Amino acid sequence: MSRPVLQADKLTKTVTSGERKLAILNQLSLSVAAGESVAILGKSGAGKSTLLGLLAGLDTPSDGELILFGQPLSRLDEDGRAALRAGRVGFVFQNFQLLPTLSALENVLLPLELSPRAGEDHTAQAWLAKVGLGERVDHLPKQLSGGEQQRVAIARAFVTDPKLVFADEPTGNLDPDTGAQIIDLLFTLNREAGTTLILVTHDHALARRCDRCLQLAQGQLLPLDPNTVGGGQ
Ligand SMILES: Nc1ncnc2c1ncn2[C@@H]1O[C@H](COP(=O)(O)OP(=O)(O)OP(=O)(O)O)[C@@H](O)[C@H]1O
Ligand SMILES: [Mg+2]
């Protein structure tokens, strides 16, 4: 097995809500090898989005350690974590988080501007074409449907050719045909570019195509047999 790209060791996340302390994640450990595809399933509110944010280094745990690309994140400040992620980590947010005043093309260009390289416009245009939005480059997010915004978010996550992609319900707003196309695209990249995928999904077809399925419940991850996910739906 190749060297892990990500190792989470006893991650705990506790938040305070009013007077109450809520433990979202409880000493959760996970190791993901380069090139692996992992699906994370679980009920609404189980903490999947919280976990994804922590694994990507976008959020900090209350306790425990995350090692990303061999670097313990606890030793890095926010700028150091951003530098570690730049160009290497792509993230598709559950609510897309597109910038409302920027066009589809400008949104996809954003990560490239943070790690400049040649041919930026061309690369961003090519990604929008790959997700089926080649004709919509000048549209603002509000001029796009939910599924179209989701595809812009996917293009933005992949535009830097990252080694590791996190996607929070990447097919959640897509019709079955478009969803199937996006799933094919994700796994082609996984296979051809060796991109490691960590996906949160309720989509059993997507989960079954992953190397590994995990269920988040009571702040812990438990293995699920991908072949039995969704009972063959
Ligand atoms: N900053 C916060 N303060 C208080 N509670 C929070 C905070 N962040 C998350 N939570 C709570 O933690 C729980 C887990 O939230 P999270 O968004 O991670 O769930 P999820 O599994 O992604 O759910 P869904 O499937 O609906 O997207 C929820 O009950 C949520 O209300
Ligand atoms: Mg969520």
Automatic annotation (TrEMBL):
Belongs to the ABC transporter superfamily. It comes from Halomonas colorata. InterPro entries: AAA+_ATPase, ABC_transporter-like_ATP-bd, ABC_transporter-like_CS, MacB-like_ATP-bd, P-loop_NTPase. SMART domains: AAA. The keyword Thylakoid does not apply. Residues 6-232 form the ABC transporter domain. It holds the Pfam family ABC_tran. SUPFAM superfamilies: P-loop containing nucleoside triphosphate hydrolases (SSF52540). This is ABC transporter ATP-binding protein. One of its GO terms (molecular function) is ATP binding. It comes from the Bacteria. PANTHER family: ABC TRANSPORTER ATP-BINDING PROTEIN MG467-RELATED, LIPOPROTEIN-RELEASING SYSTEM ATP-BINDING PROTEIN LOLD. Keywords: ATP-binding, Nucleotide-binding, Transport.
